[in-house]
Amino acid sequence: ERYTKFVKERADIELSYAKQIRSLSKKYHPKRSREDESRYTWCLAFAATLRQLNDVAVQREELAENLNTQIVCEMTRYIQELKAERKTHFQDGRRTQQHIESSWKQLESSKRRFERDCKEAERAQHVSDRIDLDKTEGEKQKQQAAEESRKDYVTSLNQFNQDQHQHYHTLVPVIYQRIQDMEERRIERIADAMRLSAEAERKILPVVSRCLDAMMDTSESIHPRMDTRQVVEVYKSGFDPPGDVEFEDYSATMRRSISESSYLDNRTEGRSNNKLLQGSGPADCSHLPPEQRRKKLQTRIDNINEEIQKEREQRDALLKMRQVYERSPQMGDASSLEPQLEEVKQSLLRLEDELRKNQAWLSEVDSRLSDHSRRQSGGCGLNSQETTPGSSSLKHPDGSYTEDHNAELQFKSRSSEFDDDFDDEEPLPSIGTCKSLYPFQGQNEGTLSMVEGELLSVVEEDKGDGWTRVRRNLEEEGYVPTSYIKVFLDSSAKGAMTYI
């Protein structure tokens, strides 16, 4: 019973361990919201390790089940049988003991009766001798009773000796031998249970060993260089980095358009604009960097193709059903399927139109990226016009693509020295007007909110980043998405902007 209790507690511990391991594996298993991490080798290796750990938990559960079924249940049943057998042996022992005690009592009773009768016969003889009389009838009877008691005592004595000999040489040794055999079987059963316990655990070791080997293999499959390249491939923008900042001659008239403060203000505004546009933007994704725009459009095209395939399958199924109805009118009305067919047809037209638009936008992005690659491979570099702060920085307001943080700190320190001078300068001249086509909420610093149909002044054109700098009055100025407005530039202002 003690060993059975030990095995049961051991099985409970294994089951609890397996449950905790399974829960741990489930807790750290990649969620659907983080499925983008499946492209990295270290994430794949970690997921594989969790799966192997779950397999280890399964093996531990199997061990607990084997311990319960093969040992605990069988030993519990055997314990009941053992108790019944032992009870039988003890009952036999008690019956044997009661028999020898009964025989002993019979012997003592015969002995006492024989002793009493002898004493009475002896007293009767003394009385007869004293009065010198012949033996009376009473004396004869007492002597006869004493003789009969003697015979009964001899018989009881012989019977007790036989019973005692049988008790100590036959009955009790047999009972003890049976108890000894029972104990040997019990001990042997414990040995078998211990062997089964070890075999049950040894049985799962090869599978656990294979799981550990698989964990080792997954660790070898991690490639840091491949993962970092994946990150670069996912997050690269495709924009050219800003060029060198040109020397500004402060002895001449200061030009607002290329001042350091304006450059830094644009970079700061660009960061805010980029964060704003990560969550929303125009349909053509022109607010995104080229590489991100291409990936976004490609994903959208793949999704549209899947939707088109589903709609076509539904259309084919409806057409087949209509043919069945036409051949067998009793199965249904073919005309009842026309509204569904028309709805599927309109959905297909809409999806195909959406697909063409996205494919056109994707072709535009691919052509720009290919031109950019050819320029880089040809060694043309950036010309002086493109590397000015007024053009390069505004080509994409986000300055986060520049890795030179020391230069940015220098710009900030220099801009703080001349803030007071810049505050007194005249604002940039208007180069045209624009009309808003859609409403826009400028929630971040550097952007300007507008309503549909509003007329604004254009301060700077779109430099290729999808943003145009506009002004409502002398105090309200900022960037708005180029795709949200229609621009009307002045012919004289175009030349001025070219110069700037």
Strand runs, count:
5
Q: Could you give the order of strands across the largest sheet?
A: 4-3-2-1-5
The succession of helices and strands, N to C, reads HHHHHHHHHHEEEEEH
Helical stretch count?
A: 11
Summed over residues and divided by their number, the pLDDT gives a mean of 78
- Class by helix and strand content? mainly alpha
Low-pLDDT parts are 254-279, 379-425, 493-500
Q: Report the β-strand fraction as a percent range.
A: 5-15%
Helix amount, in percent? 55-70%
Q: Using only CA atoms, what is the Rg?
A: 54 Å
What coarse outline follows from CA principal-axis ratios?
Answer: rod-shaped
Q: Between the first and last Cα atoms, what is the distance in angstroms?
A: 97 Å
What order do the helices and strands come in, and which of them pair?
Blueprint: H1 2-28, H2 41-131, H3 137-220, H4 224-235, H5 260-277, H6 290-327, H7 338-378, H8 389-395, H9 405-417, H10 419-423, E1 432-436, E2 455-460, E3 467-471, E4 477-481, E5 485-489, H11 491-499
Helix pairs in contact: 1-2, 2-3, 5-8, 6-7
Could you list some keywords that capture this structure?
500 residues; mainly alpha; 5-stranded antiparallel sheet; 5 strands; rod-shaped
Question: How would you summarize this macromolecular structure in one to three sentences?
Answer:
The protein is mostly helical and 500 residues long. The protein is 69% helix and 5% strand.
Folded structure, characterized:
- GO terms for molecular function: lipid binding.
- Belongs to the FNBP1 family.
- One of its GO terms (biological process) is signal transduction.
- With 500 residues, this protein is mostly helical.
- The chain contains eleven helices and five strands, in the order H-H-H-H-H-H-H-H-H-H-E-E-E-E-E-H.
- The chain has a five-stranded antiparallel sheet.
- Strand 2 and strand 3 form a beta hairpin.
- The chain is rod-shaped and about 180 Å long.
- 20% of the residues are buried.
